[in-house]
Specification:
It is a single chain. The chain contains three helices and 14 strands. A seven-stranded mixed sheet has the order 2-3-4-1-12-14-13, with helices on one face. Strands 6-7-8-5-9-11-10 form a seven-stranded mixed sheet. The chain has a single domain, classed as Roll (2,3-Dihydroxybiphenyl 1,2-Dioxygenase, domain 1). The protein is globular. By secondary structure, it is mainly beta. GO terms for molecular function: dioxygenase activity. Keywords: Dioxygenase, Oxidoreductase. This is Ring-cleaving dioxygenase.
Length: about 220
């Protein structure tokens, strides 16, 4: 599954634009007074200014990177952001996922992950550049009932369940694109920040039907 476009809300539109365009050096695809879009490999990542004055939306999402470039990507990021730590580590190996990842906050408090999935083999050489970012590969979706929503996504979108425990943490999709379903009280790894429910819109490449999660602000097409 490829996420063609992912839309999140923010109360710090200008700050996020400066961060993604000038700090991370991602390509600005388009912008207007209330939105901007940057290219993340195959995915257009869009932020929309929220109308709710007191709301401070934040999300967890991940970028797939060329798996051979993990150390180089980490060094690239370390010059630009503060990498998040857990137990004094700032890089994380997920043996069951055959992957390595690093995390950082953006100005809105979004928890951004660069993940190298070693099952997706790389032919990339030389230094890490943003051409080594493949796509937005994870979109975190906090929910009230993980099992129920996983069943809805599985049936509505014909997507498989991918690892997870089915109760408090359940990815849905594949290594190119995963909805990360978590209990709304869960803390996003590697932080102590509890997941929050905020509007999300995802356009899936090749999908020709719309579906949603009942009673939650998540839209898919």
């Amino acid at each position: 599954m490829i996420f063609e476009e992912v839309k999140f809300e923010t109360n710090l539109l200008k700050e996020l634009k400066n961060f993604y365009v000038y700090t991370l050096d991602l390509e600005l695809v388009k912008e207007d007074d209330s939105t901007f879009t940057v290219a993340v490999g195959e995915t257009d990542l869009t932020f929309v200014q929220t109308d709710a004055k007191d709301e401070k939306p934040f999300y967890h999402f991940a970028f797939n990177i060329e798996e051979s470039k993990f150390k180089l990507a980490k060094a690239y990021l370390a010059k630009r952001v503060t990498l998040l730590q857990n137990d004094f580590q700032d890089e994380f190996e997920f043996v069951d996922w055959n992957a390595h990842a690093v995390y950082f906050y953006d100005p809105s408090g979004n928890i951004v992950e660069y993940i190298a999935r070693h099952n997706i083999k790389s032919n990339s050489k030389d230094e890490f550049t943003n051409n080594d970012i493949l796509c937005v590969s994870e979109v975190g979706l906090p929910v009230l009932d993980v099992s129920s929503v996983a069943s809805t996504l599985e049936s509505e979108s014909n997507l498989p369940l991918w690892k997870g425990n089915g109760t408090s943490f359940q990815p849905v999709g594949d290594e190119h694109g995963l909805f990360i379903l978590v209990n709304s009280e869960r803390e996003w790894f590697p932080t102590n920040t509890k997941a929050g429910i905020f509007p999300v819109m995802v356009k899936i490449k090749g999908n020709d039907r719309q579906f949603s999660v009942p009673d939650l602000p998540y839209q898919f097409n």
